[in-house]
Specification:
The chain has 190 residues and is α/β, with parallel strands linked by helices. Helices cover 44% and strands 23% of the residues. The longest helix has 17 residues, at 172-188. It is globular and about 45 Å long. The structure holds adenosine-5'-diphosphate and guanosine-5'-monophosphate (5GP).
Length: 190
């Protein structure tokens, strides 16, 4: 059986990583995680090669020049994130499904490239105010970076209709259930 792509996109702080992590813990869906490359610094607890491939800015640009990325975006000024072709091909060649935690523009681009072989899921916060609260509670970004992420979120939310499915992450367990249901339906074709 050939593998499929599961694209999970949302503004920063909407709960993509939490949902993907919890789905992986549940273990009901056979999927591997696409480890992106970035030039941002690791947060406490983040492991190189597990959460991201952490590159210097020079290394990131070398990989762009070498044509190693399926897609990449300068998601925030000076901060680059990209999906490596090798990550996707390794999974698909092995017949495995692969899940991508990727920004909204990147999600739309990958869906265009893979069409029916991909499902694109947009995770929506209950409100922008709640999104700000979650980013503040997460405590991983400075106020300045949170402001930057919120102003980008307002633009990204307008792109939700471009996705195959929108899941609202209000109650976390319900959001995980809904995401699991959508992915299972896509993978099994039911
Ligand atoms: P993203 O990966 O989209 O940037 P995270 O998964 O890191 O977002 O979630 C941002 C923060 O919000 C985290 O601290 C997470 O624990 C919290 N969070 C996620 N979902 C919910 C929810 N439904 N209710 C309250 N807090 C949530
Ligand atoms: P963070 O710094 O919070 O880990 O991620 C910031 C944003 O970059 C998130 O929206 C995340 O989904 C996005 N992102 C992570 N990896 C990729 C990638 O490979 N490509 C693109 N386009 N965005 C990514």
């Amino acid at each position: 059986m050939s593998g499929k792509l599961i694209i999970i996109s949302a503004p920063s702080g909407c709960g993509k990583s939490t949902i993907i992590h919890d789905l992986t813990q549940r273990g009901n869906i056979d999927m591997t995680f696409s480890v992106s490359a970035t030039n941002r610094k690791p947060r406490a607890g983040e492991i190189d090669g597990v959460h991201y491939h952490f590159l210097s800015t020079g290394e990131f640009h070398d990989r762009i020049a070498a044509g190693d990325f399926l897609e990449y975006e300068e998601v925030y000024p000076g901060r680059f994130y990209g999906t490596l072709k090798s990550e996707i091909n390794r999974a698909l060649d092995a017949g495995r499904n692969i899940v991508l935690d990727i920004d909204v523009k990147g999600g739309i681009n990958v869906k265009r490239l893979y069409g029916q072989r991909a499902i694109s899921i947009f995770i929506k916060p209950p409100s922008v105010e709640e999104l700000r609260r979650r980013l503040e509670n997460r405590g991983t970004e400075s106020r300045e970076v949170i402001d930057e992420r919120i102003s980008r979120a307002e633009f990204e939310l307008s792109l939700a209709p471009e996705f195959d499915t929108v899941v609202v992450n209000d109650n976390l367990e319900k959001a995980i259930d809904n995401t699991e249901r959508v992915i299972t339906g896509f993978i099994t074709g039911k």
